[in-house]
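Posting this for the archive.
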Amino acid sequence: MEIKDIIKVMTLKGYAVFENDTKPLNINYVGIRDTSGVNKFNDWLVMFWKYRGNWSSFWRPGTTDPGTYWLNNPSNPHGTAILREDQYRGAWKLGLHKGYEALVQRKEVTVIRDGNKDGVLDLDSGHLDVGFFGINHHRANAKNESVQVDKWSAGCQVTADPHLYDIFIQLCKESEEIWGEGLTYTLLNVEDFN
């Protein structure tokens, strides 16, 4: 999978692709969900931008799904939140998640509520919920790369490797200084590329 493939899928879905390359780091931030297994960091979190006619990108493994702990023990009576695949314009900004720097939710998003406690992602449950749920973009372990999601995500978008996460946060800071507050996130599915 390459950036051109992501742009093609985004365009087919009618999503914005930020191509203004007069200044650096006009970031397109995309999650690519892989539903082949739960409780794994098997998704891709991708940032790409165009500057002076050339595309650059930064890829990191992560999860776009809650871990099995939260699927089996939802904190909401209607079920655990799973971010719905869509484009969320300007919905995140730099802030704090449990005391460290992260992207925090600043606009309403749509989640799918999975309430049957079977440890399986139910993306077609039909139980949609719109609002502020604290769906943040943060890291798992602060020191080492995490292998399993477990309690690291109750619906947040989570980076497995703390060193890659540090690069991600630095890119967010630099982009915000140039383009202002509010980062757009687009969540796709690996099946969109078939």
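Residues 162-179 form the longest helix (18 residues). Residues 3-193 form one domain.
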